[in-house]
Structures are given as structure tokens and as C-alpha cells.
Design a protein that fits this description.
The chain is an alpha/beta fold and 352 residues long. It is built from twelve helices and 13 strands. The two termini are 34 Å apart.
Length: 352
Amino acid sequence: MRLIEQIGLKALYGFDPETAHGLAIRALKFGLGPSVGQVTSPRLRTRVAGLDLLNPIGLAAGFDKNAEVIEPLGKCGFGFIEVGAATPRPQPGNPKPRLFRLTKDRAAINRFGFNNQGMDAIANRLANRPKNGVIGLNLGANKDSQDRAADFAKVLARCGAHLDFATVNVSSPNTEKLRDLQGKDALSALLNGVIDANDQLEKPISIFLKIAPDLADQDLIDIAQVARDTRIHGIIATNTTLSRDGLKSAHRGQMGGLSGAPLFEKSTHVLARLSQLTDGEIPLIGVGGVATPEHAYQKIRAGASAVQLYTALVYGGMSSVTDIVRGLEALLERDGFANVADAVGSGRNDWL
């Protein structure tokens, strides 16, 4: 981490976490983030679900909820960026405080509840996105919606023309009964609605499904089958967890989804099991606890074709993105992989 970034992070820790996040977004708007540009090489370039990535390290949804800083984020070394979640109508989310640092655990708990400015405001910003780079949107449903399944298709229809991929997010623990949509029948109906909306776009895009880490094995079996049947393009494993096992920080008892280091093993086990169930037929994106090159490499060897991170930025700063990308490249070279795609699933059995 650079000295100036260390100073900046220390200053941000003096604010409550949500205020600090807002200040980080503002700093990016003013050009105060890294400007490393594209970080790539023949070993790092890869194609995932029809998307050509300069490298396999992406930004997970939740950091740039309203698509405000896509351009500066594109200069930070990411291979792809996911913004949102977006809902049809603006909504404030859950009452504050709703974001908590767990510093001793290098983790965070949030219960935002899909706070965002709504699909129209987000679509207007996406219309002016940089043309280079791979940009996706996390699709959500309004808390008071009478038809949550229809909300996902509605957001896609409004924003899809400006996207490279979209993620169906039925795995947030912070909207009541949202995770019920992960059930086999409900999920099939929801995804078929999104696929239909995607087919209506002038240029259809890649559709991903984001799942929770707290699923039973039969749930994973069902999800793998639904993914095959609906022919979605990829699965993101995983969202935050409701587990609190082994936490040491003062805020460990807060309600919400836990992200960061404690999620790494749990989410990687789910990733490896999904890789086994889908047998390489459906690309997987590994998320949960990625903070080092070794973490990213383990996700890939467990079965991920690409990786996303977010909470690591709270503790390592934005410059850690380039460190992870370059460190991953070194690990691939060390083990004789000419390309990241060659390493996918090579260590899956270690996690089963």
C-alpha cells in the first residue's frame, strides 16, 4: 500500500463506515484514486461467458451502487466492474447505522437493503459509461414490490442497452424473503423472465445469477440444474453470509450480511461444489474474502473463471487491486500456466 493511501485510509477510519464510503466515492470523482490504467498480459487475458476480460479480477457490486464512478474505477486495474444493485424505483434502504467494520476480523457487516437511486438515474449514468471495459449491473427488487420477480426483468429492460452483463441478485440477506427466490421453482420462473427480457434487447448480454453461501447441498444441486435449464451464462458464488462463526470484533452481533476474510473458506467450498455440479459447463465467478493474490488464485483453482472483491478495499485500499492482479500473474507463471483459463478448477478437489 502506498504511503499516501495509508494516510487516507487512516483518516477514513475516523468516520463511521457509511460516511467513509461516501467520501471514498467523492475522492474517486475528484480523480484522487489510482490511475494505473489497464493491467493485463497474455497470461491474464481471458474470455468468460462471452466477455473478453483484460484480467480476471473484478469489482463486486455494492461499492458503486449508483454507477457514479465507473470511469475512475476503470483506471484502478480491474478487469471488469459490477455496479448496483439497482431497483425499479429509488429506495432509501434500511435505517442507519447499517454498515459496520469488523477490523479484528478484516470483515464488514452490512444491512443496506438495496438503497439506490433507482433504475432511471442509474441508466442515465450508464448511457455515458466509457466504451472500453466490461461493465455489469446487479439487478434488484424493491422491498415493497408486489412482484419482485418482475422487478429484475424491468431493471434489465431499462438498463440493458448500456451493459455487458447483468446479475440477478436473489441472495442479499437484507431484503425480507428475497432469498426465498433461490428455491428451484421460484428461481426458474424468475430467470426465465429475465432471459425473456434479455432476448428483447437489441443486443442481448450475459446474464449471471448471484447465490448465497448459506445453502444446503440439495439447494446447490437444484441451482445447478436450474442454471442448466435456463441457460444462464454464469453463476457468482457467493454473496454475504449470515454466519458469525469465529468472529472477534465488537460488532460481530450486528444483523446483516458478513463479508471479508471470514467468508473466504465458506464461499470457496460452495464455489468448488458448484464447479463439480456444473462440470465446467457454466462459468463461475468467485467472490468472498479475496484480499491477496493467493486468495484469487485459490478461487480460480477451486473452479472460478474470474474473481470479484470489495471488502478487501476497506483494509488494503484501491492500490491493492494492481497488487492482486500482478501477484496472480506471478503465481500462474510459477505453476506453469500459460493462461488463467488453464488453471480454472485445477485444485477443485482440495475444497470438496
